[in-house]
């Protein structure tokens, strides 16, 4: 169907919709009212991922707490320690987790102190995550290269010191 331009009086073609052209308003259906019990709370839905992460970590700690890594045959040996005799930064991590679950803090720190710091750091970050999700704020962890290089340097220093003769107190 052809229409006439009001200003020029010339016939125009049917309008085409482009990305920049406004879309004519249409009659919208009224929103459907739901009973309050049928609609999930927004924060409850957002808590699903943090709850899943906590469940996975709790399950891993429960398993390590029930299966003693100090008894041979339950877990595979560290390949770096087995083939080179060098303790990696993760060596003693399972023993540390086992002692941590059983409340033996000195043994957990002696087995792998950075792992214990990692457990505590996870607890703090997880708590911040949940609080921000409940408040509806975005969760951001902005670690720059300086933070990552510092963490790597500390783990490298820990690894070197625990493999030197005077660092025997760090050996698991």
Outline:
elongated
Distance between the termini: 85 Å
* Strand line-up across the major sheet: 1-2
User: What portion of the residues fall into strands of 2 or more residues?
Assistant: under 5%
Helix content: 40-55%
Give the key terms:
172 residues, single chain, 2 strands, mainly alpha
Helix and strand arrangement:
Elements: E1 3-4, E2 11-12, H1 42-46, H2 48-66, H3 79-84, H4 93-101, H5 105-111, H6 113-134, H7 145-162
Antiparallel strand pairs: 1-2
Helix pairs in contact: 2-4, 4-5, 5-6
Question: How would you describe the overall organization of this protein?
Answer:
The chain has 172 residues and is mostly helical. Helix content is 50%, strand content 2%. It has seven helices and two strands; from the N terminus they run ββααααααα. The protein has a two-stranded antiparallel sheet. β1 and β2 form a beta hairpin. α2 packs across α4 (93-101), α4 packs antiparallel against α5 and α5 (105-111) crosses α6 (113-134). The relative contact order is 0.09. The model has no long low-confidence stretch (mean pLDDT 81).
Summarize the model shown.
With 172 residues, this protein is mainly α.
